Amino acid sequence: MLTGYSAFSDVELIADYSLASNFYENDTNHPIPDKDNNGAQSSITVNHIGDAGNINVEVNISHTYTGDLILELHSPTGEKHILQKKSGGGTDDIAKVYSIDMTGIEAQGDWILNVIDTVKNDIGTIEHWSITFL
Questions:
Q1: What percent of the chain has pLDDT over 90?
Q2: 41 falls within a domain
Q3: Any domain includes 9
Q4: Which of 50, 63, 56 is nearest to 115 (CA)?
Q5: How many structural domains does the chain have?
């Protein structure tokens, strides 16, 4: 609640103000299947109505060989954006923010992070991810 007073007319102004959420997250662990083309899917339901515009996607993934991974972001209307594709070599884990222009894409609905492990012998987990509409 926001309250204000006029210095000249002794009138009290009262209004409700709420800031719509622009941050959504999923912190449920999702194991990434080893060498499985379907990958691991984790979803976030967004109630932000309108154009997605510019977004930040933060991911935290534990994995013993990040060069095996493909990270895809799927919008509620089916568009796919590749966040990362087999980069990082033998390094462990991904903790990164990706800035993406999703102008023209509807924000409301289920967004899906799909992580595909393309090679056998290394395992991992989607630990947390989030979307921020800027």
A1: 82
A2: yes
A3: no
A4: 63
A5: 1
> For residue 2, is it within any domain?
no
Q: What pTM was estimated for this model as a whole?
A: 0.84
Radius of gyration of the chain (CA): 20
Q: What is the pLDDT of residue 64?
A: 94
Q: How far apart are alpha carbons 58 and 132 in whole angstroms?
A: 8
* Structural domain contains residue 127: yes
In single-letter form, the type of residue at position 96 comes to K
Q: Which domain holds residue 127?
A: 20-133
| CB-based contacts of 117, cutoff 8 Å, min separation 6 | 32, 33, 34, 35, 36, 39, 63, 68, 69, 123, 124
What CATH number corresponds to the domain at position 46? 2.60.120.260
The three state secondary structure string of the chain is: CEEEECCCCCCEEEECCCCCCCEEEECCCEEECCCCCCCEEEEEEECCCCEEEEEEEEEEEEECCHHHEEEEEECCCCCEEEEEECCCCCCCCEEEEEEEEEEEEECCEEEEEEEEECCCCCCEEEEEEEEEEC
